[in-house]
Amino acid sequence: MAKINIPDALKAAVPQTMFGRILAATPVIMTVVATALAGLASSEMTRAQYNRSLAAQQQSKAGDQWSFFQAKRLRAALQRNTLDILRATAEVRPYAATDLDAATAAALQTGELPALPDATAMEASLTAALAVLEQSPTDAGAATVIAQVKAPALEAALLAAKERAHALDKLLEPITKTVEQLDRQLAQTASDPALHRPFVAARLRYTANRYDAEARVNQAIANLYEVQVRMSNQKADRHHHRSKSFFFGMLIAQAAVIIATFSLAAARRSLLWGLAAAGGAAAVSFALYVYLFV
Q1: Which of 95, 117, 168, 191 could cysteine-pair with 198, CB 3.0–4.6 Å?
Q2: How far is residue 21's CA from residue 11's CA, in Å, rounded to a whole number?
């Protein structure tokens, strides 16, 4: 930035008092204020761009979870449709499980899956945000509720939801392997399809229930990602607004520099110096207001 040089003749015209020295330094002070506000405006815009980019990444993760949810719900529906067709076209006896562990026997005979640990309790603000998104996901009024959510609470809930999905995979993995092994054995040894049919019906029911359970945990993760996306977008909007406000403050400070410079040049210090001081004070006050409250 170019250095402001005040001619010696004009310096001599300024009273050599404390107030006169302050007035003579006004252009320099206002230049520093304008520079600081320009830096703040640039910093806030960078933060806005970062949060917007972060929201896009989080939206991609949410999209992946919704894709998993939809695919597993569709697979569950296909398994149930196949089971309905099988029952409508042939007699299906209950499957009599032998030499199976309790969890696998329950999954094949009754379709009951092992119980997952209860979901971790979430903060009230996060529960409210999820409820609002479920009722009206595009409602602008959801912004007020989502703004109350704390980032650490959301991160903890996301981690707990992912751990719950991992726990479900671990619980069902041995059952699924046993079912697949039984399916291969029966396919090779059962010459009469009627002997294989009870197991096929039990396998279809178990698989449908498994896909439904997996879909629910994916849905929970997707909903939390949706809250995270909206939080990042709100942060981006806030930083963008702050950047614009700091930019206007910089313009006010630059206007004060111009007024002060003209005042020195015209040696009309009374009114114009007052305008310069008022402009500088307005710029500083506006910047502080934006920084603290906006």
Answers
A1: 95
A2: 9
Straight-line distance from the first to the last Cα atom of the chain, in angstroms, rounded to the nearest whole number? 29
Specify the amino acid at residue 235: K
Per-residue CA distances from 68 to 160, 196, 217, 229, 249 (Å)? 18, 31, 10, 18, 48
| Cβ neighbour number for residue 126 with a 10 Å cutoff | 20
pLDDT of 79 = 94
- Arithmetic mean of pLDDT, 220-241: 93
Instruction: State mean pLDDT over 85-99.
Output: 84
At 63, which amino acid appears? G
- The whole-angstrom separation of Cα 77 and Cα 83 is 10
pLDDT above 50 (res 1): no
Q: What is the CA radius of gyration of the chain?
A: 34
How many H helices and E strands in the chain? 8, 0
Nearest CA among 206, 221, 201, 203 for reference residue 114: 206
- Name the residue ranges covered by the structural domains of the chain: 9-293
247-268 per-position pLDDT tens digit = 888 888 877 776 776 666 555 5
**C-beta neighbour count of 276 within 10 angstroms:** 26
Q: Please give the full DSSP string across 226-259, using - where no structure is assigned.
A: HHHHHHHHHHHHHHHHHHHHHHHHHHHHHHHHHH
Alpha carbon 261 to its chain centroid, in Å, reads 48
Q: Is residue 210 a contact partner of residue 176, using CB atoms and an 8 Å limit?
A: yes
SS3 string of 19-62? Answer: HHHHHHHHHHHHHHHHHHHHHHHHHHHHHHHHHHHHHHHHHHHH
Instruction: Report residue 194 CA to chain centroid gap.
Output: 53
